[in-house]
Design a protein that fits this description.
Elements lengths: L5 E5 L4 E10 L13 H4 E7 L9 E4 L3 E10 L5 E3 L2 E7 L2 E2 L3 E2 L1 E3 L2 E3 L11 H4 E6 L5 H8 L3
Antiparallel strand pairs: 1-2, 1-5, 2-3, 3-4, 5-6, 7-8, 7-9, 7-12, 10-11
Length: 146
């Protein structure tokens, strides 16, 4: 079973934090537990800096943040891979161009399914940024002529 953890990108602070909790808006008459539909039901997010020994927790309206889920995978340097990360594929037949990690049809993927693409994904991928802190990595790829 993979570890469930989340990061929070605060749109106004332009900073990444760790998710500490959240408040739901729940109508118990017709409530169902939707898979990965959490962001539309969250009213407030509790977040904290990712610093050892830091016990500060802040609260923000959900409209001011983006929540990034951990994929349960690590890259070749041991770094956690999150939704919205920009990864570079290193393979024996050559390196790929930067790709954003997304969640589609029940799978974590970029241009290929992250889990099924190779036997040792942790040896091939490298997180080089994310869509929030380093969006220019994707823009440079989109601007290259084919």
């Amino acid at each position: 079973m993979r570890e469930h953890k989340y990061q929070v990108w605060h749109k106004e602070h332009k900073q990444m934090y760790m998710l500490a909790g959240y408040d739901h808006i729940v109508d118990y008459d017709d409530y169902t537990e939707p898979e990965r539909e959490y962001s539309e039901q969250i009213q407030h997010v509790l977040y904290t800096p990712d610093l050892p020994g830091c016990e500060k927790i802040w609260r923000a309206d959900a409209a001011y943040v983006e929540i990034r889920e951990y994929t349960g995978l690590k890259d070749r340097t041991g770094k956690d891979i999150y939704e919205g990360d920009i990864i570079l594929r290193h393979a024996q037949w050559g390196n790929g161009s930067p790709e954003a990690v997304t969640y589609e049809n029940g799978h974590w993927s970029y241009s290929y399914d992250l889990v099924e693409y190779c036997e040792r994904p942790d040896e091939q991928w490298e997180v080089i940024g994310n869509l929030y802190e380093t969006p220019d990595l994707m823009k440079a790829t989109e601007e290259q002529p084919e």
